[in-house]
Amino acid sequence: GEGEPIPHPPESWILGNLREIDPSFATSSFWRLAEIYGPIYSLNLVKRNVIVVSDYNLIKEVCDDTLYEKYVTGVQENVRLLTKNGLFTAYNDEEEWGIAHRTLVPAFGPIHVRKMFPQMIDILSQMVLRWDRFGPEHRISCMEDTTRLAFDIIGLCAFNYRFNAFYGENSPVFAQQMLEVLIETGKRTSRLEWENQLRFLSKKHMTDNVHAMWKVCDEIVADRKAHPRPDLDDMLNIMLNAKDPITGKGLSDENIRYQIVTFLVAGHDTSAGTMNFLWYNLLKQPEALQKCYAEVDAVIGDRPVELDDIPKLKYIEASIKEALRFLGPIPVFNRHAKQTRLLGGKYKVTPRDAIVVNLKGLHHDPSVWGKDCDEFKPERFLNGGWERLPPNAWQPFGTGVRQCIGRYLAIQEIILTMAMILQRFVIEMADPDYQLKIMSTLTIKPEDFYIRARRRPGKD
Ligand code: HEM
């Protein structure tokens, strides 16, 4: 059958619904329209048709990999300019995705991630030292320092490469270039094609940045080949030596380049953004913050953090999960139906429709999260709360076979970071009446969010 019509805003001639979208922060427009049109609506964005779904029942269906799959479209498809057939932006039917996925899932699994503990501590110690040296009066840009942290951690853990982001006044050149490329690809997604054609200078600048980043990746690979490190089992060695059990093939040097940029793109902004949302929420909820301090003091006290402490920091882990529920760094992901069907038994969707999963809608659906869904409460994940969640209720890492490969790495990194900071510092907002402002690139994160770090009495 044809099903029921999907609600949608009135269209204008030529521009369709394009004017509904804020080009610098498209997700905010999806949120606004969900308030008006409800849990499902469609938009004609000229270059493509999108359907935004915002409640648990519709999203649960769309997350089912037997009926739907990831759809590389919109801004993600434009990011292919940089990351090509790397894991994040590969089309489902590209052979390289399968080869890399089978090779790298174990490399990003919990057992392997545990072995990255010393490297994580190495980088974290640099941040702690920096905060100590600058002292309690210094305004710390939370985003800048957590970005440095996440960038250095992924570089050291995955390729044994040091960006040394804590040693420079500004963020590493590679990170700056990446930011510029992501901002420009985001803008290009919302512009009409003829307008993109006109902006050839910004296109040239973007292409130059991309080539410079690829060069760094190629140098990392060349250096490892020139100076083999059989003693390491980092991602780089795994990628260089792997033979896929199904196809018998390894990863080409070109594909390894795209995986390296992918890990750097996907692995730093997301973790950093999560830590910022977490700190923002904890500083707004002093009771939750006090429980984090109490847990670190009880489990670790004043001795150095150990690997076995991580699973014991349950309240901190619940706070991270809650921060990711409340508002995480990736606010939407795209799916499409494998075949034309009726979504929710009612709405016709075809494989060409991009179905946007609105995570804010899912994570604040009162039918799943209750009447207090708009409050920040780590407790909801404790005492069996996590186990009681219905399937697909919490999806900050995406869903199915294309869900985030780096989630164990990210969670371990953030727990460790919290432990190291809480053990040593009293954290406060540098601007006590800071109101959350969001900045959007490929991910979203708090903007202009500054903190201060003062040594806890007797903890030095
Ligand atoms: C995929 C979120 C950290 C690497 C994804 C997806 C989401 C996500 C939502 C699915 C995107 C889609 O469906 O289109 C996050 C969050 C993180 C995080 C919230 C931090 C808290 C990391 C880290 C890495 C990473 C540290 C390390 C390299 C990837 C890769 C994919 C991916 C390679 C693509 C997987 C595939 O399609 O096979 N992530 N991510 N992520 N993430 Fe993460």
UniProtKB/TrEMBL annotation:
Q: Which family does it belong to?
A: In the N-terminal section; belongs to the cytochrome P450 family.
What name has this protein been given in UniProt?
Bifunctional cytochrome P450/NADPH--P450 reductase
Where do the coiled-coil regions begin and end? none
Summarize where heme binds, as residue positions.
404
Q: Which residues of the full protein are shown?
A: 25 to 484 of 1126
